[in-house]
Amino acid sequence: MSQDDHTFRLGEVLVVCAPSGTGKSTLINMLREEFPDFGFSVSYTTRAPRGEEQNGREYNFVTREQFVAMRSRGDFCEWAEVHGNFYGTATKPVEAMLDAGRDVLFDIDVQGAKQLKKTFYKGTYVFLLPPSREELVARLEGRGTDSAESISKRLTNASGELSQAKWFDYWVVNDDLELAYQELRAVYLAGRCKPSLRPGILGNIMKTWEDDG
């Protein structure tokens, strides 16, 4: 499809960030279920797989040495060290999906999102907020996967992450799951209508006036 065709649309970059335990994975899975054509950015990480996670699905699991080599080559559009592990996103696969008109969903931390905005500054950046500290503690403890020390560290990190929420485009409070999803869904659909993602539409519509005359 030609970029001159009025139906052509570049892909949207949708970035979703949240403190650990906010419910980000649940909301993202709901979005992907409704919109299965999403191009999902599968990050690289040096942490070990959890539960039923599979290499190439939730993450590309690599060694610390492999990650450092990729970073040195400039393969990542963003990378960060979180909870003692490296996470990063390769640039070329993302650009290819966007150029083909496919929206790309990023599930990354605040550090990575801030780097990403330097490259994909026209993207849509969403920060998910927990309703309160108490609720976040309850959710982290309820998962049964983190030690008391790990929960304490995640709460400390959450405070720092919340202080960065101010530069995001949208805030969604995950108090009621269905309401939070409807807000996230609305943000995504609105982002698809940005003029920067439909470079040919206005000119081609205006051209119909010229053709008619």
Top keywords for this entry?
4-stranded mixed sheet, 8 helices, 213 residues, Rossmann fold, Guanylate_kin-like_dom, nucleotide-binding, 18% strand, Guanylate kinase, ATP-binding, 5-stranded parallel sheet, 9 strands, alpha/beta, 43% helix
How would you describe the overall organization of this protein?
This protein has 213 residues and is α/β, with parallel strands linked by helices. It has one domain: Rossmann fold, CATH 3.40.50.300. It is 43% helix and 18% strand. It contains 8 helices and 9 strands. Strands 2-7-1-8-9 form a 5-stranded parallel sheet. A hairpin with a 2-residue loop joins strand 5 and strand 6. It is globular. The mean pLDDT is 89.
How would you summarize this macromolecular structure in one to three sentences?
Keywords: ATP-binding, Cytoplasm, Kinase, Nucleotide-binding, Transferase. With 213 residues, this protein is an alpha/beta fold.
The shape, in one word, is globular
> What is the N-to-C succession of helices and strands?
EHEEEHEEHEHEHHEHH
The biggest sheet, with number of strands, parallel, antiparallel or mixed sense and barrel status, is:
5 strands, parallel
Which structural category do the helix and sheet elements fall into?
A: alpha/beta
Radius of gyration: 19 Å
Overall number of domains: 1
Number of helices: 8
Write the layout of secondary structure elements.
Elements: E1 13-17, H1 24-34, E2 39-40, E3 44-45, E4 60-61, H2 64-72, E5 76-82, E6 85-90, H3 91-99, E7 104-107, H4 110-119, E8 124-129, H5 133-143, H6 148-162, E9 170-173, H7 177-191, H8 201-212
Parallel strand pairs: 1-7, 1-8, 2-7, 3-4, 8-9
Antiparallel strand pairs: 3-6, 5-6
Domain Guanylate kinase-like: 11-189
Catalytic activity: GMP + ATP = GDP + ADP
GO molecular function: kinase activity
